[in-house]
Predict the structure of Orotate phosphoribosyltransferase.
Amino acid sequence: MTTIDTAAARARLLEIIREKAIVHGRVTLSSGKEADYYVDLRRISLDGEAAPLVGIVMRELTKDLTYAAVGGLTLGADPVATSMLHAAAASGDRLDAFVVRKAGKAHGLQQRIEGPSIEGRRVLVVEDTTTTGASPLAAVEAAREDGAEVVAVATIADRATGAGERISAEAGVEYRYAFSLEELGLA
C-alpha cells in the first residue's frame, strides 16, 4: 500500500482546475441562472492526470464518514464516483459506485439506479460542481427510495449560491466541498 501525499494531490488538483476548467464569459448554468464564468469540471474529472487526484481529494474530504458506495445524478457525478472507487482500490480499500438516472428506464430492469445494489447500505452522494443543489437532492431522494442511508453530499467545487444550505435543510444531510470560489480565484 502506497502512502499518498493528500496535500500535494489537493494543491495539484487546484492548479489543474484553475488552468483547464475555468472558462470566463457569460454562460447560462443548468439551473437557468446566468454567470460570468463557468467551471467545467468534466475537463478535470475526465482528465488522465486530474481524475486520480479527484478521487484522492474527495476521499480525503470525506475520510471521517463511513460509506460503502458513492454516486449521484448522471453525468456530473459519474466520473467523480469512479475516481473515488479507483482511489479506494489503489489504497487497498473497497468502494462501490452507482449512477442515478434522471428518470427510470422504460425497458430492461427499469432501474433508476445502476451499479451494485445500494439497498441497506451507507452511501455518499457526489457531484462535480454545485449551484442550486437540485442534482444532489434528486440523487439523495433516489438513493433513499432505493433503500440506502445517505451520509452526506460532497462536491468538488461549491459556487457559494446556497446549495449547501438547501441540501442540509431539505435532505437533512451534511454538505461538503473540496474547493470554494475563493480558492478557485472566482470570488
The first helix runs from residue 6 to 20.
